[in-house]
Specification:
The protein is of the alpha/beta class. The protein is built from 15 helices and 13 strands. The protein has three domains: 106 residues, Gyrase A, domain 2, CATH 3.30.1360.120; 145 residues, Four Helix Bundle (Hemerythrin (Met), subunit A) (Up-down Bundle), CATH 1.20.120; 164 residues, Rossmann fold (3-Layer(aba) Sandwich). 45% of the residues lie in helices and 18% in strands. The strands form two sheets. It has a seven-stranded mixed beta sheet with strand order 3-4-5-6-2-1-7, covered by helices on one side. It is flat, with a radius of gyration of 29 Å. The two termini are 20 Å apart. It binds guanosine-5'-triphosphate and magnesium ion. Guanosine-5'-triphosphate (GTP) binds next to helix 9.
Length: 456
Amino acid sequence: MRTTIAAVATAPGIAAIGIVRISGADAVAVADRVFRSASGRALAEVRPGLLQVGHVFGTDGESLDECVCLVSRAPKSYTGEDTAELQCHGSPAALAEVLRAVLDAGARLARPGEFTKRAFLNGRLDLTQAEAVIDVIEAETAAAVKNAAAQLGGAIGRRIDRGYGELLDVAAHFHASVDYPDEEIDEFQTGEYAFQLGQLENSLRELLATFERGRVLKNGLPMAILGRPNVGKSSLFNALLGRDRAIVTSSPGTTRDTLEEKLVLGGALVRLTDTAGLRGSTDAAEEEGVARAVRAAEDAQLVLAVFDGSSPLTEEDERTLAAARSASRAIAVINKSDLPQNLDVSALGDAFSDVVRVSAKTGDGLDRLESAVALAYPELTDASGGEILTNARQAEAVARASDFVHEASLALARGVTPDAALVEIEGALGAIGEVTGRNIREDTVERIFERFCVGK
Ligand SMILES: Nc1nc2c(ncn2[C@@H]2O[C@H](COP(=O)(O)OP(=O)(O)OP(=O)(O)O)[C@@H](O)[C@H]2O)c(=O)[nH]1
Ligand SMILES: [Mg+2]
């Protein structure tokens, strides 16, 4: 039997409420040793799911706080075990004392992710759901939360399980024909299985194809600000960021190195890079800065090409136009809209998905720029189905599973013996089972939950 564990589940710091969580066979007994309800009834006797008001006591028997206790009974709890939650006032000092009393009463301090790990080991969550827990916690945009929340609800797990079930049926039939060679699988059925596996492969590859978007949803869209010196790139960078991050001066060539910051624009998480102004230079440091700017533009999925709206296009702007043309996507930002305008926008050509006038100085037009970014990548602001794969471990297992399924359907099409096809099908079952954690190595499980915080 697993030991009873406890931890503070809420973030460190002062807050309205702080929670000490206890889980395990002795959870209620441990809670009873530190908590006395106002009604005088022991927690062991109260109905699970009903909040009990009372006091929590320290090791010395003195009251530490007035609090509420919630008891849940196995298997109907987050972990699948008996649990007790002491919901106290959010004072870090009080919570530390309550935790100490709980540990003295017989619980041991939980390791990172141990509550969720128990939920997984007790079959309350599959591994895609457990991993979604941390994704929900760490999500930086509404879209990322929605995607993770749907996965917490089992969106990926259900899809994977369907595939697992199909493979299992095929494997069962093939096993039977290996064990009873007289019962051959007829050709029609072999063709049917090959078709079914082909469909399954398509569905797995479709899921895998969402991972590219998933990575961007989770880590942010790489985005670079480009332009000739002095057009206001660093001013725009600061304005979008909402703070004075980059140095701005009136002399061209101020920014040398690239600067990267993560922020949310129009609901989309982006990794925005400010770069050195593009121009020919004989200064070694500036030259290196320009080379870095070009590399940042190449790595970016979206380039903000900045132009000075108060002056006509110059020869130096040509470099920006060229970089925008070779970028995967570019928005033209005509800056300094607060000054009299002298730029002929039609001269910019058709390299841009959007042209937006802004003033980094007054903030005018920044909302339109944010909308243009969100519009260019709608999947970064709308991902409610939970169908976007964001987890590298899951993606790797899905890739391996699709390769096995591919080989299995090829083998069937080639008319190999059932045992030869079985090798590939078993391989696929193994890989697909790793996604949801049906069959997974203990050390992999350990590694997954180490990333969680204590108390989750
Ligand atoms: N009037 C006006 N001035 C601006 C605006 N944006 C930037 N400037 C001014 O333009 C000058 C250059 O701004 P920076 O942001 O340093 O330009 P940059 O493109 O980063 O320049 P480099 O780093 O040299 O490539 C500064 O004097 C800014 O105050 C704007 O929207 N309106
Ligand atoms: Mg600059």
